[in-house]
């Protein structure tokens, strides 16, 4: 009887391990690409990624069983825009972020962008903040990665300032955004934060210059646009909307 019981336990354990492996194999995996840039032009102030724009999509996807890796141009800890840590910018997601030791540890050890491969993921997502305007907008590894995701029929998602990373991305010789419906941090929102003359370029103008059909709603209102595999959000309040659209696309791909 003891032998039978032991055999049963071993068999059940093996079955559980196999089932867990199968579940993990079937889980979707998303790459988050975050800025490494921390200087706000020549102002002497700091910038980086905007906490809400990482936290809200991260938890929206994580809570639905999506595996998430994080990469940055330089690897290691990405800078956080200090303004996004102000209590006035706090949300339930940012409060969860502040207490999430696992995520904070993951951020300290981000992958180097040059080392990640599109083939290992089902989609890519870029949080915003002003940082991407300076580094990811001109990062060749980033442009190549986005092109690879897009041409392999995988969703590419951006929010607030991060559509700036599409500035130099081309597919088959044409700008990826050409003829596409997009949104992103608006000129009026940039003026409202007093950085029109600080940023290297205005995102709304850059998208239109590359042939995109740009649209927006009122400043600071949630708004996201989906055009095929391309998903963009206007501002921090749009972060969760972008994640929801991304999740829907991931779930539609079996």
Automatic annotation (TrEMBL):
Q: What is this protein called?
A: Type 1 glutamine amidotransferase domain-containing protein
Q: Does the keyword Lyase apply?
A: yes
- Species whose genome carries this gene: Flavobacterium fructosi
Question: Quick one: signal sequence residues?
Answer: 1-21
Give the DJ-1/PfpI domain ranges.
Answer: 105-248
Q: Which CDD domains match?
A: GATase1_Hsp31_like (cd03141)
* Taxon lineage: Bacteria, Pseudomonadati, Bacteroidota, Flavobacteriia, Flavobacteriales
**Key words, A-Z:** Glutamine amidotransferase, Lyase, Signal, Stress response
**Top-level taxon in the UniProt lineage:** Bacteria
Q: Which family does it belong to?
A: Belongs to the peptidase C56 family. HSP31-like subfamily.
Q: Which Pfam families does the protein's record reference?
A: DJ-1_PfpI (PF01965)
Residue ranges annotated as transmembrane are none
């Amino acid at each position: 009887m003891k032998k039978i019981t032991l055999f049963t336990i071993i068999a059940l354990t093996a079955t559980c391990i196999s089932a867990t492996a199968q579940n993990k194999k079937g889980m979707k995996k998303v790459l988050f690409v975050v800025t490494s840039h921390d200087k706000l032009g020549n102002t002497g102030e700091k910038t980086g990624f905007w906490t809400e724009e990482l936290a809200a999509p991260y938890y929206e996807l994580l809570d639905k069983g999506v595996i998430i890796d994080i990469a940055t141009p330089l690897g290691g800890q990405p800078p956080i825009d200090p303004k996004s840590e102000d209590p006035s910018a706090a949300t339930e997601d940012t409060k969860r972020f502040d207490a999430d030791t696992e995520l904070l540890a993951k951020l300290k050890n981000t992958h180097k962008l040059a080392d990640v491969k599109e083939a290992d993921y089902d989609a890519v997502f870029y949080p915003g903040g002003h940082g991407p305007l300076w580094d990811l907008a001109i990062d060749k590894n980033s442009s190549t990665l986005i092109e690879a995701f897009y041409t392999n029929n995988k969703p590419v998602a951006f929010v607030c300032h991060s559509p700036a990373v599409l500035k130099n991305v081309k597919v088959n010789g044409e700008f990826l955004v050409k003829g596409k419906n997009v949104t992103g941090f608006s000129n009026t929102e940039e003026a409202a934060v007093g950085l029109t003359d600080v940023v290297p370029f205005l995102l709304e103008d850059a998208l239109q210059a590359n042939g995109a059909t740009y649209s927006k709603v009122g400043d600071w209102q949630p708004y996201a646009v989906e055009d095929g595999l391309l998903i963009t959000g206007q501002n921090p309040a749009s972060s969760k909307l972008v994640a929801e659209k991304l999740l829907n696309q991931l779930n539609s791909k079996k």
